[in-house]
């Protein structure tokens, strides 16, 4: 049974940092991605981690501030978020794909499995 579980969300002051973790189990995954959803916003691609190459990709709004890393031994993917601002507020979802979806990594419907999300709230 495949499970995808996010953790680490919470309340953080603007300018602060937060680290999210994603535990995906039950299958072998090609990519693990992060998306976020906020009121009046679309389901935005945050970033992804490709297991075979350890390559990472980021959405334009978070590039340079967020860092994704993977732990092969633990099958964990982490999202380190720095210099947070109010625009980063939202529900963060971890998604896992069993096939290499290549350049479609930023499309939510290309992933097989999703976690329930974890809330991140940035206050001033």
Q: Could you characterize what this model shows?
A:
It is a single chain. The chain has 124 residues and is mainly β. It is built from no helices and 11 strands. The strands form 2 sheets. Strands 2, 4, 5, 6, 9, 10 and 11 form a 7-stranded mixed sheet that branches. A 4-stranded antiparallel sheet has the order 1-3-8-7, with no helix packed on it. It starts with a strand and ends with a strand. The model has no long low-confidence stretch (mean pLDDT 96).
Summarize the structure.
This protein is mainly β.
Q: Helical stretch count?
A: 0
Strand content: over 45%
Cα(first) to Cα(last) distance is: 41 Å
N-to-C SSE series?
EEEEEEEEEEE
Shape: globular
Mean pLDDT figure: 96
Tell me the Rg in angstroms.
13 Å
Structural class: mainly beta
Give the helix level as a range of percent.
Answer: under 10%
Give the low-pLDDT segments: none
Major sheet: size, sense and barrel closure? Answer: 7 strands, mixed
Secondary structure: number of strands: 11
Descriptive terms for the model:
124 residues; 7-stranded mixed beta sheet; 0% helix; 4-stranded antiparallel beta sheet; mainly beta; 50% strand
